[in-house]
């Protein structure tokens, strides 16, 4: 069994875009440095969107530049359109994440395009990247894959069709996102199994919100199905400005604790991560934070699951 798992930190983008506090660039750089020192090797440092829309992310170019000075760190950014992608490619981001909504209502609110128009955008971004010989990875995150507060139910057939469409348009990998925290473990198993049958190993990541307390349970199901890369946000901050009620990502420290206790290797030092979480809480005084392990602390002793044992099944 592959016991190596990547936990991509998304707090600097998904987390900060959802709160009122505008964190100074110097503190963001301190966050990146501390996360890197703790062992995190993929960080979504921001997003190339107009500063007037999200002033919290206006310094993304500077953060990419700093992240690139740290050996082995993958600097990821979110880009909603061609202009943002061109900027990300220009500054040398290692990876771009294009948000595509399976919900038509959320797509209209979030990127002001239909899903079909977003497929055309993906193709344009791929063409632009290839034209300049860039090696920036193109990933598409399928938002609202498990339901939407604006639209309600999202047909699984739509999700699968859009995943395949994104790959056909030029994305190199795709992920499934529970943007509004609707997913339950049974739904996660069903949709991931169906998606894996359709697109195979190019489904590389899962993004869960803990809005209704099921992020870890959903992570465990995706893990059992072979997913080895997960988005998470230190202190559980996050949400979507265009998805009412979309509060709280899976907390990085909780995900790392669970994986470590189960015998998986994240390469992340949990004590260092909890120290960073404490620092972030001080920076974001008054903001709503999440997570659980920081309250009780790491157990001083206890059995750890042998990774050679059969995998979890509900």
Note the topology.
Elements: E1 6-9, H1 11-15, H2 25-38, E2 42-47, H3 60-67, E3 74-78, H4 82-91, E4 95-101, H5 104-110, H6 115-131, E5 137-143, H7 156-169, E6 173-178, H8 185-199, E7 203-208, H9 215-224, E8 229-232, H10 252-261, H11 270-283, H12 293-296
Parallel strand pairs: 1-8, 2-3, 3-4, 4-5, 5-6, 6-7, 7-8
Largest sheet: 8 strands, parallel
The helix/strand class is alpha/beta
User: In what range is the share of β-strand residues?
Assistant: 5-15%
CATH topology: TIM Barrel
Principal-axes geometry comes out as: globular
Spatial arrangement of strands, main beta sheet: 1-8-7-6-5-4-3-2
Helix content: 40-55%
Write a structural description.
The chain is an alpha/beta fold and 314 residues long. It has one domain (6-296): Alpha-Beta Barrel (TIM Barrel). It is built from twelve helices and eight strands. Strands 1-8-7-6-5-4-3-2 form an eight-stranded parallel β-sheet. Helix 6 packs parallel to helix 7 (156-169). The chain starts with 5 loop residues before the first strand and ends in an 18-residue tail after the last helix.
Please provide a brief summary of the model.
This protein has helices spanning 11-15, 25-38, 60-67, 82-91, 104-110, 115-131, 156-169, 185-199, 215-224, 252-261, 270-283, 293-296, and strands at 6-9, 42-47, 74-78, 95-101, 137-143, 173-178, 203-208, 229-232. The protein is an alpha/beta fold. It has a single domain, classed as Alpha-Beta Barrel (TIM Barrel).
Record keyword descriptors for this entry.
single chain, 314 residues, alpha/beta, TIM Barrel, eight-stranded parallel beta sheet, 41% helix, 14% strand, globular, disordered C terminus
């Amino acid at each position: 069994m592959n016991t190596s798992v990547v936990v991509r930190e998304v707090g600097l983008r998904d987390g900060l875009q959802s709160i009122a506090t505008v964190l100074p660039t110097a503190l963001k750089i301190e966050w990146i440095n501390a996360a890197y020192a703790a062992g995190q090797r993929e960080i979504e440092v921001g997003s190339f969107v107009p500063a007037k829309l999200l002033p919290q992310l206006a310094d993304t170019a500077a953060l990419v530049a700093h992240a690139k000075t740290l050996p082995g760190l993958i600097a990821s950014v979110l880009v909603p359109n061609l202009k943002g992608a061109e900027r990300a490619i220009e500054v040398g981001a290692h990876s771009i994440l294009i948000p595509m909504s399976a919900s038509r209502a959320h797509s209209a609110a979030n990127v002001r395009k239909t899903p079909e128009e977003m497929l055309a955008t993906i193709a344009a971004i791929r063409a632009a990247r290839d034209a300049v010989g860039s090696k920036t990875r193109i990933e598409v995150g399928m938002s609202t894959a498990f339901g939407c507060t604006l639209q309600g139910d999202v047909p699984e057939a739509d999700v699968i069709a859009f995943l395949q469409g994104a790959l056909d348009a030029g994305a190199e990998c795709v992920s499934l996102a529970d943007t509004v925290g609707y997913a339950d473990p049974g739904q996660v198993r069903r949709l991931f199994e169906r998606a894996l049958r359709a697109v195979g190993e190019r489904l590389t990541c899962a993004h869960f919100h803990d809005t209704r307390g099921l992020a870890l349970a959903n992570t465990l199901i995706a893990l059992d199905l072979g997913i080895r890369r997960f988005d998470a946000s230190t202190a559980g901050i996050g949400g979507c400005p265009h998805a009412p009620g979309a509060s709280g990502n899976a907390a990085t420290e909780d995900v790392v604790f669970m994986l470590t206790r189960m015998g998986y290797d994240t390469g992340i030092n949990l004590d260092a991560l909890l120290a960073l979480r404490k620092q972030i809480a001080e920076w974001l005084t008054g903001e709503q934070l999440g997570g659980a392990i920081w309250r009780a602390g790491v157990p001083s002793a206890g059995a750890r699951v042998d990774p050679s044992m059969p995998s979890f099944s509900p």
